[in-house]
């Protein structure tokens, strides 16, 4: 993820507030996009990397509900919650649900800028991890049904003979499938294959 491609998404139903935050963030190298509602953001979002400044108290879909939708859709943008004084309990709940931090309105501009920089560093890591997982899934999709069965048994510590007995095939055939699995998954070792299997949550 390059800085030029990273976007700060501002989600807040207060137009004046969105405009003031956007003006502040225009001093950074990041792209800025603002939305008046969670639904507007969801309709427009196209998997670009970045972070989110999210108001918790909004009509229709509030910040907590948007967080849940993002989790369901595997949208991994780091979230900074922006909240009024009375919304602090909601902000704490948002933190428990994975938000990076929260700021009470009104807040210090420098504090927000530093938080956005930290969120973008986190976004870099999440974006890289998501790309790696996508590549792993694509590799896994190239395996035949039998190769997937062999992979599942290999990573749980079964020997070729045990796998052969479980699947009703010869140890030699298991060895062939095992070799193909290692090649297709680009696994450097059995330990590497186990790590891949864990990351795929199979």
UniProtKB/TrEMBL annotation:
Residues 113-149 form a coiled coil. SMART domains: HTH_LUXR, REC. The modification 4-aspartylphosphate is found at residue 55. Keywords: Coiled coil, DNA-binding, Phosphoprotein, Transcription, Transcription regulation. Residues 136-201 form the HTH luxR-type domain. Gene3D superfamilies: 3.40.50.2300, Winged helix-like DNA-binding domain superfamily/Winged helix DNA-binding domain. This is Two component transcriptional regulator, LuxR family. It comes from Marinobacterium sediminicola.
């Amino acid at each position: 993820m390059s800085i030029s491609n990273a976007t700060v998404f501002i989600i807040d139903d207060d137009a004046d507030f969105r405009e003031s935050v956007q003006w502040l963030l225009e001093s950074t190298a990041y792209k800025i996009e603002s939305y008046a509602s969670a639904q507007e953001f969801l309709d427009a979002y196209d998997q670009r990397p970045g972070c989110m400044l999210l108001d918790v108290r909004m009509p229709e879909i509030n910040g907590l509900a948007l967080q849940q939708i993002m989790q369901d859709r595997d949208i991994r943008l780091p979230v900074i919650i922006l909240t009024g004084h009375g919304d602090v309990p909601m902000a704490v709940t948002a933190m428990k649900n994975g938000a990076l931090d929260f700021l009470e309105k009104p807040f210090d501009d420098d504090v927000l800028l530093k938080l956005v920089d930290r969120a973008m560093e986190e976004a870099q890591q999440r974006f890289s991890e998501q790309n790696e997982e996508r590549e792993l899934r694509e590799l896994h999709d190239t395996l035949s049904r039998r190769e997937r069965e062999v992979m599942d048994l290999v990573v749980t510590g079964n020997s070729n003979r045990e796998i052969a007995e479980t699947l009703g095939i010869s140890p030699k055939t298991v060895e062939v499938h095992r070799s193909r699995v290692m090649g297709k998954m680009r696994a450097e070792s059995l330990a590497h294959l186990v790590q891949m299997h864990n990351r795929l949550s199979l």
